[in-house]
């Protein structure tokens, strides 16, 4: 992952030059940079990158777009890891609302966002709520499983 960061940083510069700083492709590179920082355990660095990506996604694609939902869930995770549970919960709720409204939402992404919300609920001592959210995530995965089982 250490090698990825400079590549993404160069990609960011080139994409901003080619597309402008508010293009969804710029958001995608920022999103990837935030993911790299998160994987490296640098959540304090990941958060502003993901926030910037989220802002661009919201303006360019809308609040209900799957990219917006996914980025918001990633930001929730970075915030939760830093102990920013209120912000993490807010991001989770925004992500879930977007997944629920998105016409072509990825069920796996939606389930992952539900899992993140359940994590926040557990970290804020709301295990009963977390169990209900986890059950929703399981249900989504089970609905998807039969179709996946048919693939060679």
Low-confidence stretches: none
Class of secondary structure makeup: mainly alpha
Shape: globular
What about the largest sheet?
none
CA-atom Rg in angstroms: 16 Å
CATH topology: Serine Threonine Protein Phosphatase 5, Tetratricopeptide repeat
| CATH architecture label | Alpha Horseshoe
Helical coverage, percent range:
over 70%
CATH level 4 superfamily: Tetratricopeptide repeat domain
Q: Number of folding domains?
A: 1
What fraction strand? Answer: under 5%
Order of helices and strands: HHHHHHH
**Mean pLDDT across all amino acids:** 91
Number of helical runs? 7
Describe this structure as you would to a colleague:
With about 150 residues, this protein is mostly helical. It has a single domain, classed as Tetratricopeptide repeat domain (Serine Threonine Protein Phosphatase 5, Tetratricopeptide repeat, Alpha Horseshoe). The chain contains 7 helices and no strands. The mean pLDDT is about 90.
Write the layout of secondary structure elements.
Elements: H1 4-19, H2 24-39, H3 43-61, H4 66-81, H5 85-101, H6 107-123, H7 127-149
